[in-house]
Structure formats: structure tokens, C-alpha cells
Fold each of these.
Amino acid sequence: MLPGPLDFSDTISSMASAPTSKYNSHSLENESIKRTSRDGVNWDLSEAVPRLPGETRVADKEVIYICPFNGPIKGRVYITNYRLYLRSLETDSALILDVPLGVISRIEKMGGATSRGENSYGLDITCKDMRNLRFALKQEGHSRRDMFEILTRHAFPLAHSLPIFAFLNEEKFNVDGWLVYNPVEEYRRQGLPNHHWRITFINKCYELCDTYPSLLVVPYRASDEDLRRVATFRSRNRIPATGGGYESDDAYHNAELFFLDIHNIHVMRESLKKVKDIVYPNVEESHWLSSLESTHWLEHIKLVLTGAIQVADKVSSGKSSVLVHCSDGWDRTAQLTSLAMLMLDSFYRSIEGFEILVQKEWISFGHKFASRIGHGDKNHADADRSPIFLQFIDCVWQMSKQFPTAFEFNEQFLITILDHLYSCRFGTFLYNCESARERQKVTERTVSLWSLINSNKDKFKNPFYTKEINRVLYPVASMRHLELWVNYYIRWNPRIKQQQPNPVEQRYLELLALRDEYIKRLEELQLANSAKLSDPSTSPSSPSQMMPHVQTHF
Amino acid sequence: MRAVPRPPLPWGWAEPQPPVLVAAATAGARVAASAPARRCFPGRRYAGERGSRRWRRHQGAQALLRVVRAPRGEQLLCEASTVLKYVQEDSCQRGIYGKLVCTDFKIAFLGDDESALDNDETQFKNKVIGENDITLHCVDQIYGVFDEKKKTLFGQLKKYPEKLIIHCKDLRVFHFCLRYTKEEEVKRIVSGIIHHTQAPKLLKRLFLFSYAAAARNSTATDPKNHTVMFETLQDWCWELERTKGNMKYKAVRVNEGYRVSERLPEYFVVPTPLPEEDVPRFQGHGIPMWCWSCHNGCALLKMSALPKEQDDAVLQVQKSFLDGVYKTIHRPPYEIVKTEDLSSSFLSLQDIQTAHSKFKQLFLIDNSTEFWDTDIKWFSLLESSSWLDIIRRCLKKAIEITECLEAQNMNVLLLEENASDLCCLISSLVQVMMDPHCRTRVGFQSLVQKEWIMGGHCFLDRCNHLRQSDKEEVPVFLLFLDCVWQLVHQHPPAFEFTETYLTVLSDSLYIPIFSTFFFNSPHQKDTNMGRESQDTQGKPLNLLTVWDWSVQFEPKAQTLLKNPLYVEKPKLDKGQRKGMRFKHQRQLSLPLTQSKSSPKRGFFREETDHLIKNLLGKRISKLINSSDELQDNFREFYDSWHSKPTDYHGLLLPHIEGPEIKVWAQRYLRWIPEAQILGGGRVATMSKLLEMMEEVQSLQEKIDERHHGQVALQAEASSLLRASARLSSLFPFALLQRHSSKPVLPTSGWKALGDEEDLARREDESVDVGDL
């Protein structure tokens, strides 16, 4: 793994998440012995801590980081209002830990006054991104109490009437991610409104349904009065509205009912916990497969994908629209509609298309991100928390794995989205619904994650992407093809292969560069030849000696 | 039958010819007398028979034979018409009518409507085995369906099934409906197929011999094949020189003419100070045989155990003999030799056999329902087969040995009963990992020749090609290929060959026209092909080697065996090379810290007795070094290698953590339509890569053209991958085409959640109930 040379502009925008090097798939990861080059290049050495605009330092302390892979390492931990940053103080270790406080789900004290063993007194921090951090502290001088309190305050600002960091972040990007999604434009792209569907402003001030967006597309023949009546019968007034907005006949004629057997948010949460048990800190070795099976995680992925395939198939084969609903309408519904849309409409497989998809089907339609993720909230055991969005992204990853040329974005893109799902650096995933976001003026007061991504798109691009406008993509929802997303779930383990750069990809990029060079060369030669038509003998020495010939086997 | 010989076709192939009824005795093999009618598909040189009466009598069969690729000497044994072959397509089945034939080489289905079968879309045609051909050796299990019930068929049948299901060793599954076939023909074809695939055979009756006899005059060797066969003393000397092992080891001809042992090859390599007269003492048992030398001079050796003896006096003789051998190699420059007993503390052949028979069953799937029924339990089914765990153990063992050679500077001596099963496996795996030459195609083939063919791996017995009822297939070689596949899969740029190469190599185990995998030892091959069988024309039979890939594949198809990601090691001039070597050493070797060295390492004084006990049959399970120390060394070596960037031309280690050992999907899933990802899989990126290569190459040519003022030859670069717009993930093996873009939907439901049941019943949003 080579730490790639970093350009400075890149550093400013993304150093907090540290997905910096494009060869590095572990966005938030820094726990590595190899990556010394990053610091010093990136940051003001006197501070020794990277800082985002608006980020302020709170405290620092000498601790022992109990690395589950390399044993205890002495280091200094710096806490800001955004992150926890640890730098090794040992000469033979260049370990760095850079963790946004938003990923912290729980902070526990370990060991008591009577604890004997070495390094048994300290803090144990549970993270939402599949890892735990343990710090051993000295028993004297309240150092643990101080650190516990500082961390708790800044990791869980809601309980302390502090703002979430996204509202303090002063980062500037040359693209405004909030402009990516414009509902009217997106509906227009889909050919809506038409004679089957109309746009209604009935929910303009969220008076019909406060968890729905203000702009809705509804069946043409349903009057606003009908909608108001329907709304009273549905959970939280959530009326049926269009997701995909597909070509369709009358929506509710010949409605076919099928059940998808997908389990609820509690089952999903427990399943992910089990995944963590088998991968962190140690990967279960001899019974890996049966342990993996017993987590049921991939089984859930399979069922979600199967459901989405069924929805997509119904929409594309029949002339019928599909009404997707679950008990409340913003978890599985969002998963199924967005995955079905991804299968049917190639637009959503581009970077911007995917951003729009997330913005529309998840954020705008009221997936309860705040409850499911618990941004800034200390209640780690909240039954409302569940990795529904992660599960969706995992499904997308499985699809991109099965169709490696069909998506404009790469794995890094998906990992970055997941990292900032928790980080609280951007406003994108904050709050439960559009009306709450509007009340908090999120688009004015915070930066969008899409600003970070779109101002640095190259890093998130899949070089193999082949645009195929009308291609419908059905993944194979079989366990034979589903695999655990190792580069995400097991990325903290240095023993697990992270094939970065992917050799096929690297070779392809080399060839691309070579092609461009040759084309340039050829143009130059053409110019030179036309200039020197009279004297062909003076052509420069053979280019085959000057240029690296590509070694191929045809 | 002695027609005037005509010039042989390239590679000894006959074009399909009309069948001729053969008189009772030909030079070819006699198959059991139960065979009802006997026809043969002769080569072109028999074409003069065409006008004969016998030929006209069988003109009826002509149509179907147009699609038969018949190797010379093949004889038709029985046939049945109006057989319906099921073809699974878009998750519904349809049938194709045709003729089912059984020859002494294969079972073949010949469709009445050729166009439906002779599918030109199949880009990766095998010239020997068509997609509806099953060599007799490739048949794994035959089932009959009686009143909807599936039963294994064997021996004499009282009742004949309405449907025949054939499971193949390459994991294809064929369904033939016999309902519309004449009763007489059903009886004949079913009992014929059962007999010819299940009855024990004599070695001499293998198709190999009739084929070789028929192709006697053809010169079917590929001049460009540089594989070292290790059949001559020079081959061994060359290998010694290549690995710089000639300082300490010598090639010996003591077994020339198999004077000493029929188990050993005629030529092999032993430590230089070892007296040659020691070799015959126990027919080569107890002699350390050289496999390979590492860049630091350490060598990998193997040794077969001495025969077990009860008699104390004999034991004493054995002990002193071994003592002598060890004393020889205990002197400088050998010094430290670590022994690795593969027959006591490692896998048993039984483990491998059991695991594989469970494992393959997971892929021999009869229908869609079966596929989805097993899908939910897939991971635990995989695990319960233990196959992947066995792969992990082999890889781990190979890493341990690599660590000894590379980091500890120790010689390693592998021990095994006959030194011809796990010794072959482990020693070749170590070489693939340590020697980049073994990762080229020629190098890999030479390795298989050296360690497996000359190493005396009993292919005939392990594959049970003779169908001996007391034996079962023990796929040690397949296990090796699967281990190599894991490496290929994890480090794609390090190999000159592709996974497709490994897959077709594994298929070639069952094609009885290549001699490579059909003998137990070089001696067995030589005695059966050479001296003894100089019957008719006084010339030894000329057998094909599997390494001549042009026998099976057209040049275009052969491009799929070459890895486009592989880049040859750049050739350096001398000055650079020196620095390079230094760097290489530094990269590969770990510093030997003091803590690592242990008095135990120099085993000779302390451990000779122990070792000898071991060799004499008193097995102990734990070896000298398998302590915590060994584990620590292993971990350090393994972690340290993986933390550095990979040098594809240097040492290569596999990852062996749970998630890293994978199912060789191309080989195992290739015939299952449900597992097919249309337009997806890794082939999608590979075809993009090849496209780009072509583009770059053509640009390169244009530039050269401009410079040299000459029109560059248009490279024949039209790759197979490019031909088709949307390939399947199973490419190049997708036999069953899915034409529509309908999704494949799982048909089975949810497995019980067990302890999560109560969670599952909970509402997502308890707060919302009654919120209206």
C-alpha cells in the first residue's frame, strides 16, 4: 500500500475524514504504521493535529492506546469539537488515529480504583463504524474523569445543548452540494407530471404530512381532498406518492399484493452487532463461514435485493405501478424503491444520479436518519437505531460488485458516504425529515456531503464505468454471489487484505494514460510530418525506444 | 483396414467421417463384449472405405455424425434415438430431440436439429470435447428417474428409467428423457453407459491406447512447447542450474531403466555427498530427494519413509542406514534441516476425499428448486464440507515451510509414506509461492512435470480412472489447483496464466487422449507405451501431452489462458541486476533476531533419534518446532510480508483468513444458470481492459508506422471477449444461455430466525401505533 502523493487542496477538504489517498479505501482509517507521510505534509506541525475551518481544540492528554492488533502504544490524544486524534509517541510506531466524534456511540469507563492489571484502567469507546477504541489512563489526577466528560460532551452534543459540528463547520467548496437535487427538475427528467400523475403542493408547509417532502407527485385522479382523507388513515399521515415515477397505467387498478419477508429494524440491528462480533477485533478463523451465516446479515441483504428485484421486475414487465409499503413507510420502502430505481434507471448509477437518489428517496421522503443513526445523541441503546441505510449501501455495493462496469462511482464513494453518515461534519444526513431540516435551515447553515464529493469527483470515479442508458440491471440475489463487504466491515484489521490499488484498475489506468500519451504523440508526429514532408529522413529516433511499450499478450 | 496412409492432419485429428463397421479384430482396444454394435470413426486415411457396402448400411447415422468430433480410433458402442435432452433456459426447461450415443471414449448427445446445438456463439470451444460430450472418465454418478423418484444407477438393472441424469466430474449435469425412445434402445444405451463408465477397466483398455495406436503415424507434438518434461538427466541439470542448486546437489542416473525402483523416475537429484550406492538399499526409500533450491541456497527436499518393519534386526539396519544418510547432510553446507512429516500431523487422503465428495455435491444441482433451497444454508453447507478449510491448511503449511526456507535459512525435508501425494502438493505450492518462474505458464507446467508426473503421483489411482471398486477418487491434484487458484485470485498480476487455464487443466484430468494424467508413475507409462507395446509397427506409441494446448483449443481460444495483467519481469543489464538482487533479498528476508534462534534448530544431535523413530513408523503428532515459537515466527513472517507492497516477481504469500479463502466460482459454478450474472462478473472489467490494450497497441503500431514508413502488420487482436456485446459472469463456460433479461428470483423463503423470533415480531415503530 503506497501512500500516494497528496495534493494540498485535497487535504483541506477531506483531511478530517482522511480518505485522502485514492489508494486508500479506509476513509476514516489512520491506524496504520505506513502512513507517516500524511502528517507534516498536511498540517501545521506546531499544532500536530489536522483542523477543519471551524474546528476548535478542546483538550489533549497522554494515554496508552490499546491497539487490538499491535498491542499497547503510548500516544497523545487530542480532542477537538469534531474529532479525537491520537498520535503515537513511540519512535518505532507512526500510528495515527483520526476519529470524528460523530462515530462514537458509547463511552464506557473500564476498570476501577482497585484494578490491578497493566492498562486495565481507562476508557472503552464503542464506535458506529465497526470498531472499539480502548485507552488506558493513569489512575491519579482525575485524568480519566476529565477525558470522559470532555468526550461525552462533544460526542453527544444534543444532551449538552451544544450544536452538532455540521453547524460550526466553515469549510468552503467550489461546488454547492445542496443544489444537486431539485425535485421539480428530477420529476421532469422522469417525464412527470403526465396524464397519470400530477404534482401537488398540498404539503407545501408540511401540514398534510410533516415527514413527507413539500412537493409530491400523486395519482392524477386523486384530488387534494382525497389525499387529505387518505392521510388520516395512514400512519403519521403518510399517503402513497411516487418514488420512481415510472411509466404507468392507473396506479391502483389490479393491485397485486406480495410480501417480501424482510425483517424489521430490530432484527437488522442485532444482525449487524453479530457481524461486528465475528470481525472485530479478530476475524473468526476456523468457522468463518458458519459464523457469517449465523449473523444473518447477508441473508437480509439477499432478501432486500430479492424484494427490490421483484419490485423492479413488476414495474418493468407489467404496465402496473408498484406500491411499496412497510409498517411505517420510511425504512424498507426507501430501500426497495431506491434499489429498484437503481436497477431500472441507469441515471441513478452515475455519481450525481446516486446523490439525487439518496437525496430524494431517503432524505426527502423522510427516512428517520436522526433516529436510526442517533446523531449527537448519547442513548446508544435506543431501540430506534438501526443500520437500514448501511444495509442499502451494502446492497448497492453488492450490485456494483456483480456489475463492475455499470456504476460511475467506486467503492470509495460508498465508504465515504457511510463515514459521513456518522461523522456529523455535513448536514446531509441530519434530522428525520424535510420539515425539521427546513426549521433548522440545514441547507443554509451546513455544508452538504455532495459538496465534498462533487468538488473532487475523480477520486470517486470507477474507471471501468460504461454508460449504458437503457440497461436494466438485475443482480443475482444468491448467497453464492453475496459476500461480506470486507473493505468496509473489516477495514480496521491490518491483516485483512485491502487490495488497494486494485491491480486490474491500476493496469487499466496505466493503459489509459498510455493511450492519451500515444494520441498526443501521434498528433505531434502528424504535425511534424506535414511540416517536414520534404525531408522524411530526419525523423527523430525511434519512439519505440523512447517510450515504454505496453506489454501485452494478444 | 490397412489403407494407404494419408498425410496426417495437424495434431492428429480426423475430420468427422462416416462410420464404418469394423471387423472383429483391430489394433484398437477391445471393450467388453457386451457392447452391442461396434462402429468406429476412423481417421481420414480410411476414407477409401467410403463406398463399401458396410458404409452404406449405416448411412442413416451420417447426419448425426457431422457434429461429432471423433478422435481417431473411437468406436461407437451403443446408441439410442429420440432422446430428449433438457436445456434449462430462463428458469424454464425445454427439450432438444436427438441421439444419445456411447463410444469407447465418450457419451455424446447429437441433436437432430444441429443448428440448435452447434451454437457458434460458444466462443470457447474445446476441439476434443464438445459441449454435449462427456468422456467416460468424466462421468461421476448416473441417476435414473423412476416415477418421479431419483435413484442411483449401477450394475445390472431390472427396470429402466424414464429419465437419465448424468453428473460429471467437471460438474456438468445432463438430463436425458427416454420416454420417447424405443424400449430396446433404452435398455441398450442405459446398460451400455452404466457398464462403460462403472465397470472396472484394465489399464490396457483405456482409450488412450486405441487413440495412440490410431494416431501412431502422426507427429503431434508442438514444437513451441517449452515445458521441461524432466524425462532426461539434462532436464534435471538444467533445473539445478536455474535454481543454483548445483553447488550442493547432483543429478543421478542410478535408476536408469528403473533398475532401482519402479516408483521413482529414471533421473532425480540428491545431495552431492550422498553415495549413489545408498539409493538402492531400500529402493530409494529414506533418500532425501531434491525438489528445489531457494535463492539463499536452502533447499526443499522430500523423502519417502522406510517400509515399516517389526523385526528388530531389520529396524536396527534401517536405523543405522538413516543415521548414515543424516550424517551425510549434517555436514556443511547443509547443516540445518527441518523435517516436516506430512503423513502424521497434517491432512490425510481420507480427509481430502471426504471433503471433496461433500463439496462437489453442492454444485451438482439438478434444478432451480434445488439451487434456491440450498441457497440460504450456503455458507454452513460450504463449511461442513471442509474443503475450504483444507485449502487453508495447505496454504498455511506452505507458508510455514516458506518461512523456514526464506526467513530462517533452513533446509526443509518433507516426509511422507511414498512422498507422492502431500509432498507433491506442498512442495509445488511452496515453489509457486517462492519461485516466480513457476508462475509463468511454461514454468508451472514444468513444475507439474517435476513434482507430480516425475514425482510419481498416482494419477491413475487417485482419479480412479480404472474404476476399481475398492478405490475412490482422491483429488489431490485438484486440491493443488484450487490452492493455486486462491493465489491467482488474490494476486492476479503475478501469474502468466488465468483461472481459465486452471479450470481447463482440471478438466483435462478426464480426457483420455493425453498421457499426462493417466499413469501412476513414469515407469508405468514407459512400460505400457514403449518397449512392451512395440507390437505392430515396432515403434513406441506416441502419446499426447496435455501441455500441447493446441490439441484442445484454437489459437484464438488460447488467448483466454493468458493473463493480460501479467507483465514479464523487466530484463536488466548486469550492473542493475546486482543491485536488484540485493534489494530482492532485503525485501524478502526478515532479519534474524537472536530471540528467534533456538538450540532446537540444529536438530541433528538432539533429534536424530527422534526423527528416526518417526521415519520408522512410530508416529508422533507434534513435531520439534510446532511450538508457540513456530507460531510466532509464522505470524511475524506473514504479517510482515502482508504489510509491504507486493512484488509480483518476488515472494508471494496468500491471505488465509476466513473471508479470503473463496470458492473457485469459475470452476464450480460455471454450469449453473441461476448463478449466472448476465453482463457482469469480473469478465466485464477484463474485457474493458483488453479493449484498451488493443487500442493502445494499435496506436503504438500507428506511431511505429509513421516512424519507419512501413505498414505495421495488423495484429490478430480480435479477442474473444470483444466479440460478444454482453458476456456472462460464467464466461467462457456459459453453456446454458439466458437470452432474456428477466431476473432470476429466489424461490425459497426465510429460514427460522431462532432466538430472534421475538424481535422479529416487534413493530418497527412501537410509538407510532395509535398515533393517528
Amino acid sequence: MVHFTAEEKAAITGLWGKVNVEEAGGEALGRLLVVYPWTQRFFDSFGNLSSASAIMGNPKVKAHGKKVLTSFGEAIKNLDNLKGAFAKLSELHCDKLHVDPENFRLLGNVIVIILATHFGREFTPDMQAAWQKLTNAVANALAHKYH
Amino acid sequence: MSLTRAERTIVVSMWSKISTQADVIGTETLERLFSCYPQAKTYFPHFDLHSGSAQLRAHGSKVVAAVGDAVKSIDNVASALSKLSELHAYVLRVDPVNFKFLSHCLLVTLASHFPADFTADAHAAWDKFLSLVSGVLTEKYR
């Protein structure tokens, strides 16, 4: 089981408190679809994804991004039991959504990059390390129920 | 995989900004690499890797200079990095997974220093460019 030190928890929750989840969520999902276009395979119903500006401005992308990042926020409230917290979502992503867990890692890295653009110098190497640990742990928790 | 003309333009124009802070960018990229992916330190048992170390700064400069060489020969990266490619294949033999970690840390460093320039398009172009560079550096591995 992943263990977060007090410093790591502080780094994570401290930064999270300043994140605009709606905005960051849309940006994160948008960038995933722009930077790794093959991830668009899960979103045929989202309409216009034909260019970076179309993707970043797409209302369905923004709405879904908000949903995803809000869920990520739940992880932060359950740092001591991520596998438990994400058990149902893990089953959903495997059995119904059929999402390759590699996509969770890609999204995690995009979230880290967005935090870097928003927080600049404040997003130090130590901060990044805590967040990489978190995104890695969330990705593993979401993949845990796969079969 | 090759870069479109638009992607090349983005990479080259951002580079002119990056190159003015090359050493800072290089050092920070390595600091991020060793903080987030401590296993990368196994390739540097002979280095003092503490923040502020002269060796870290020197190596960071080296890495960024090589990226710069690739940018300057963006139409033929394989030729520009041919010697480095051989070095990594026959001497250094750094496991290929580490190029992904280093590339990611460079992207985070760029995002942190140049947030306004690091748009979704720029992010995509740089991710692709670094992926191409990594491919060149590992293409002689076997």
C-alpha cells in the first residue's frame, strides 16, 4: 500500500486547495486529447475534436474533464485508502469503459504539467515528486480491479 | 513519426527563449528527474546529486545543449545526434524508459518557466519532439 508522508500530504492538499477544478479539469482532458490524439478513441460522441482549439473549447470535453478531476479530488480525501476509494471506478473502467490503464498514467502526467503551468516556481521538484507519487497511486488504484 | 512544419516552427521559436536560460532549465530538469524518479540516480553513482552541486549544473547544461543541437538540426535530428546515439547505445546503456522520465521532467520545467508559451499546441509539439529525440538516442541499442 502506498504511504504518503506528512510533508507529501501537506504538499498535495495545500496545492489542491488553490486549484480551480472545473478549469483545470477541462484543460487536463483537453491536453490529453491534443497531445496524445489516440486517446480520442474513447470520445467519438464528443463532436468536434479536429484541432487543438476545437478540443480545448469543446463543451463536452470541459464538462467531462471537470467530472474526472472532481473524482481525482476524492482521491486526495482518501490518501490512506486509494484502492478502496477507487474500487468501483476501477471496475467501471475495466468492464464498461474498456480503458487501457496506460491512459491513467498519461492523464496523470498531463495533470502534473498543468499544475506546473498554473503554479510556476511554486511547483518545485519536491512538490512534483509528491504529485507524481499521487498520480501514480491513483493510476494503480484505478487499474487494481482489472481482470 | 516526424514533425509537421507547424510543430517545427513552435519548437524552434520556443527554443530561442529557452536558450537564454539553458543552464537553469537543464539543472532544474535533472533535479526534477532525481526527485521524482530516484531510480535514475543509479546511472550517476559518481556524481554529487545534491541541489546546487557543480556536477549537476554541468550535466544539466550538457543535456540542454544536446537538445539545442537537435533543435538547430530539426530537419535531421538523427544526423545531429549520431555520436550521442552511439554513446548511449554502447557506453552509457541507459534503459530506454528513462528517456520518457527525463522528457517529462523537461516538459514540466518548460511549463513552469514559460506558462504563457506552453499552450496545448506547444505541449504537443514538444512532447513529440522529445519523443523523436529519445528515439534517435535509443535507435542503436540493438
